[in-house]
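Dear V.,

Thank you for sending over the compound details. I've combined the ligand you provided, zinc ion, with the protein sequence from our construct and run the structure prediction for the complex. I'm sharing the raw inputs here so there's no ambiguity about protonation or stereochemistry in the SMILES, which I know was a concern on your side last time.
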Amino acid sequence: MNRLDPHCTSPQQEHPGEHQAARQAWSARAPGSAAADIEIAFDARDRAATVTSLLAACITDTQGRPVDPDEAWDWTLNQRLQALIAMRLASGHPALELQAACALCGEAMEIALDLHLLAADPVAPRFSWCSDDGLELELRLPSGRDVQGWKQSGVPSHEQLALALVEAVAGQPPDPRTLAALLPGIDDALAAHDPLTGLQLQTSCPACAQDNSIACDLEALLLDGFARDQAGMLDEVVRLASALHWSEAEILALPRWRRAHYLRQLPTGQAATGAWT
Ligand SMILES: [Zn+2]
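Below is the predicted structure of the protein with zinc ion bound, written out as structure tokens.
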């Protein structure tokens, strides 16, 4: 864990501002609120590309311009997750449900997660950390582009991962032999700086009261919700097209409230899925 150490000096900031939290300079809209969102491909085999497509579709800068996919690839996993959270909050559904089993008795547990509690400005992409023996390291968080590269080249070893994310040790390029002894501390430092990417939830079992630490893949949960919303939108197109013989483009061009209104007029058995209500 990061601890104060008398051997460590204040970090030399080669990139002023990067050690501070990255201010949120974008805004999010709900996926599914534009007809073009029907084109977003939810590919479970390429989650990073799916996230980049969502960011390019639903995130705009302060001038209202969509984020460039190249830029979205360079965002840290923390920033990408915060953008996905903002998109989910824009859709008006802040609650996420997580299923887990108690590690002691196996009891099924349902954990409700309020995304308002996780939403924040993205954390700084670079930060300093001091090892227990006073070595000062400059670390960076992984980006979407890192994940894309690892997908193509194979999952990196623990040592390769550390080497990729440590930019300097005591002001010098990192030496793999030095890093080997620091790996547990580097893991803790990355987790402490960005608790969102490897989110751990603490909960007590309702049956045996055992304290459980549950790993939560927040990105997967958010993507699953967006994919379900898109499937609901497609179901609505099928129902309205079957009943009213409108084209897909005509139905998707309708504002959500009008689509919901027409769906409520359909006979029983063709009612709305609830995805947009
Ligand atoms: Zn239990």
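A first observation: Residues 79 and 142 are 10 Å apart (CA to CA).

Warm regards,
I. M.
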